[in-house]
Amino acid sequence: MTNSLLSHLKCVECGKIHAADKLNTVCENEACKAILSAQYDFGSNTLTKAELKNRPASLWRYKEFLPVLDEKNIVTLGEGFTPVLPLLNLHAYTGGKNVLLKDESNNPTGSFKARGLSVAVSKAKESGIKTFVIPTAGNAGGALAAYAARAGLKAHIFMPALTPTAFKQEARLFGAEVTEVDGNISDCGKRANAQAAENGWFDVSTLKEPYRLEGKKTMGYEIAEQLDWTVPDVILYPTGGGTGIIGIWKAFEELEQLGWIGNKRPRMVAVQSESCDGIHTAFQQNETQSTFKDKGFTVANGLRVPKPYADKVILRVLRESKGNSVSVNDKDILSALRELAAHEGLLVAPEGAALWHAYKVLSRSGWIKDGETVLLLNTGSGYKYLDNIV
């Protein structure tokens, strides 16, 4: 057993409670259908911060606060506990500020998607699922394919035809069935949803089941632990589906319940591509939800999400944190990518590069102040995007 403290699941919109001992997707309330958030009995926790030091350097070091009940169902490739690196050589932009980059490219399959899929596949395996389906802009498909292969299960992946070749080859090498779709991830989602209904496959689309979020929240646990149980003043996050920004916020709430951090929270910044910046537009216009927006191809494939399923929750987090949003065009993304590579030796994903440009915008404006600690969450490796960036 894992000693998981999982108690129940709760709808983030209507508050309906869902039992944790059944296979869950989204809220059962037909008028709601919102995302479910796993809840834990933190009052029963006996784990101490000091004990973590003797645990494996993976996200499963926090297994009490993850949903898998029996350790034999954990499907792992060593994901998590990625490094937090200071930016050392870009003083013209970082002077007076402590700018850090958490590098998720060190995960299996080269991105933060490994976190969510490790936990989601593990919990689905525990629930008896044999076949998965997912729409993806690239990284999530590769991660699902890898973890399904590790678990001896099947994966069906729907991916835009314009996705760089490396993502398609990766998923196929892991044994998944890949279907290329002329369109964006929303078009892939429609195909995946139809096939799931027809064939009985389990859909692990972003926030259409509750446990990818639990894997992503471990980024927040790690940030706090790696910064000696403090949190940054600002976190910049590339926002496509937005699971990570919601998960990190959830993590800090849970850590406060555990008594491991105080009530300080970072200002959260959603960074989007101008191609699909519905969250940015909604935030700047003080709207509570976004509208569908897709201007076509962007070098940051993972940011081409025309309308995130959890748009209301993302916008809520930005406002609760007194955060911000920035929209970045492809030219500035590529410039930032090359700058980080040439000066810091970091070949980040275009989604992560967008954060560097956004940081400079917010720093120049005075929104980020001298003396503050800023963390950029690079979600993946630039190597897979060579079709787009060279």
Q: Determine the strand fraction and express it as a percent band.
A: 15-25%
Main sheet summary: 6 strands, mixed
Instruction: Provide the low-confidence segments as ranges.
Output: none
What's the end-to-end separation, in Å? 48 Å
By CATH reckoning, the class would read Alpha Beta
Shape descriptor: globular
Q: Can you walk me through this structure?
A:
The structure is a single chain. The chain has 390 residues and is an alpha/beta fold. It has a single domain (82-390), classed as Rossmann fold. The chain has helices at 49-52, 91-94, 113-126, 139-151, 165-173, 185-199, 211-226, 243-258, 278-284, 311-320, 330-344, 350-364, 386-389; strands at 6-11, 17-19, 36-40, 84-86, 98-103, 131-135, 154-160, 177-181, 202-203, 234-238, 267-273, 324-328, 373-378. The strands form three sheets. A six-stranded mixed β-sheet has the order 4-5-13-10-11-12, with helices on both faces. A four-stranded parallel β-sheet has the order 8-7-6-9, with helices on both faces. The protein has a three-stranded antiparallel β-sheet with strand order 2-1-3. Helix 4 packs parallel to helix 5.
SSE layout and pairing:
Layout: E1 6-11, E2 17-19, E3 36-40, H1 49-52, E4 84-86, H2 91-94, E5 98-103, H3 113-126, E6 131-135, H4 139-151, E7 154-160, H5 165-173, E8 177-181, H6 185-199, E9 202-203, H7 211-226, E10 234-238, H8 243-258, E11 267-273, H9 278-284, H10 311-320, E12 324-328, H11 330-344, H12 350-364, E13 373-378, H13 386-389
Parallel strand pairs: 5-13, 6-7, 6-9, 7-8, 10-11, 10-13, 11-12
Antiparallel strand pairs: 1-2, 1-3, 4-5
Helix pairs in contact: 3-4, 3-7, 4-5, 7-8, 11-12
